[in-house]
Amino acid sequence: MVTGEWDAERGERLQKVMAAAGVASRRVCEDLIAAGRVEVNGEVVDEPGRRVQPGDRVSVDGVPIQLDPTRRYVVLNKPTGVVSSMSDDRGRPDLTGYTVDYDERLFNVGRLDVDTSGLLLLTNDGELAHVLAHPSFGVEKTYVARVDGVVAARTIQQLKQGIELEDGPIAADRAKLTGTAAKDGRRGTSTIELTIHSGRNRIVRRMLDAVGHPVLDLVRRQFGPLTLGSLAVGRTRDLTADEVGRLLELAQAPQTAATPDGRRRPPARPGGRARGIR
Question: Distance (Å, rounded) from C-alpha 112 to C-alpha 272?
């Protein structure tokens, strides 16, 4: 996958390619190779002198490495009031203000409603973006919603068991009540954490409307293996090599058939994550 400075005939040394991909220092990469933790095209390599060619598949502890240095992966904590596109025919704020500092032409993977804030992935990797954004793939997403009213335990169970919407049944993969704030003479509010695979339009808002608790604020905290963490609203950060690897691993994993209620789960990842190698 890497072009440019590579020796087209001889390739590049494996540890050099790994270091350039941000896995670790060249010395640590040599140690990873010697420990048998690195595979090239599905075969374990334990000799640091191994040369790799553009198009070879390299992984550490089963997690793929993105060898193409032209690929960029960025997480944005999208504010409310910003549309999830690079332009808007209604003149509303869009994503271009968050990509001007990057040389690459970035675009968003999927969308968040204009009134929803939180994690949005920006990249120039069109192939990966297509897979992750495709509705049939169903990447797991976790939202935190502040809703109107005090939510009962039976309502949480109803969200997990499934409800009927106008475009078919839907169920949360996980749902839990994380807090309530009752007020004298008023309904109060509740905070719910909801995890789903469905990519249907405004699905979280519609689910919570259907159980009688309209959304007041909605934040996406997780997209696949990516989490928002402490990233401030309106700020961006580059993904780590480990995060990129987990995205690639997710995109390359065989898919299971989606069910009508949106419960489809990606299969478990083979092997462990490449942790503790920096």
Answer: 31
Question: Under a CB-based contact definition with an 8 Å cutoff, are residues 184 and 204 in contact?
Answer: no
Question: In sequence order, which residues have a C-beta less than 8 Å from that of residue 34 and are 6 or more positions away?
Answer: 46, 48
Phi/psi at 96 (5° precision): -60, -30
Strands 38-40 vs 236-238: parallel, antiparallel or unpaired: unpaired
For residue 70, give the 3-state DSSP assignment.
Answer: coil
The answer on pLDDT for 272 being more than 50 is: no
Could you tell me the domains of the chain? Answer: 12-64 (3.10.290.10), 73-137+227-252 (3.30.70.580), 141-223 (3.30.70.1560)
The set of catalytic residues is 113
Q: What is the pLDDT of residues 140-165, one digit of tens each?
A: 999 999 999 999 999 999 999 999 99
Angle between helix 241-252 and helix 126-133 axes, rounded to 10 deg: 60
Give the global pTM: 0.83
Taking only the tens place, the pLDDT of each residue in 74-131 is 999 999 999 999 998 898 999 999 999 999 999 999 999 999 999 999 999 998 998 8
Distance separating alpha carbons of residues 1 and 64, to the nearest angstrom = 12
What pLDDT sits at residue 48?
Answer: 81
Q: With beta carbons less than 8 A apart as the criterion, state whether 60 and 274 touch.
A: yes
Residues 8-29 as b/e (b if ≥16 CB within 10 A, e otherwise) read eeebbbbbbbbbbbbbbeeeeb
Q: How far apart are CA 76 and CA 111, in angstroms?
A: 12
Question: In Å, how far are 61, 134, 191, 202, 209 from 114, measured between CA atoms?
Answer: 39, 20, 20, 10, 18
